[in-house]
Amino acid sequence: MGALIRKVVKVAPPRRLTFILIFVGVLSSVAIDAGYLILVPQTLLAAYRVGDSPVNVLTPLMVYLPFMVTVAQRYKKDAGIGTIIALMVPYAMWILIT
């Protein structure tokens, strides 16, 4: 950003120099504030998703749970929702820790 300011100052006409310096200063301040406002919520959302994703398998509202129960019942007739959740707990904890 400093190189851009120096370049603008060198090619600017003297009567516009004050306006250009103020304009560039305000824009650089806005860019820093915008970066802060954009990056912080994205970082928090990414951290939430990383922490939330391993335990999504454990919720009974998961979309694929009936499919998983159906596939499990092919191999074990008395498999149910509790069986799937009990089998997924070690994997979810391992992913959450790593």
The gyration radius over C-alpha positions equals: 28 Å
Q: In DSSP terms, counting alpha (H) and pi (I) runs of 4 or more, how many helices?
A: 4
Biggest β-sheet strands, sense, barrel: none
Query: Roughly what fraction of the amino acids lie in strands?
Result: under 5%
How many domains in all?
A: 2
Distance between the termini: 39 Å
Please state the average pLDDT score.
Answer: 77
Secondary-structure element order, N to C:
HHHH
Oligomer: single chain
Shape designation: rod-shaped
Number of strands: 0
Q: Structural class given helices, strands, pairing?
A: mainly alpha
Unreliable stretches (pLDDT < 50, length at least 5) are none
Helix content: over 70%
Transmembrane segments: 20-41, 53-72, 79-97
Keywords: Membrane, Transmembrane, Transmembrane helix
GO molecular function: secondary active p-aminobenzoyl-glutamate transmembrane transporter activity
GO biological process, one term: p-aminobenzoyl-glutamate transmembrane transport
Question: How would you portray this structure in words?
Answer:
- By secondary structure, the protein is mainly alpha-helical.
- The protein folds into two domains: 1-51; 59-97, no CATH class.
- The protein is built from four helices and no strands.
- The chain has helices at residues 2-11, 17-52, 65-75, 81-97.
- The two termini are 39 Å apart.
- The model has no long low-confidence stretch (mean pLDDT 77).
Keywords:
single chain, 2 domains, 4 helices, 76% helix, rod-shaped
Question: Short description, anyone?
Answer:
Helices cover 76% and strands 0% of the residues.
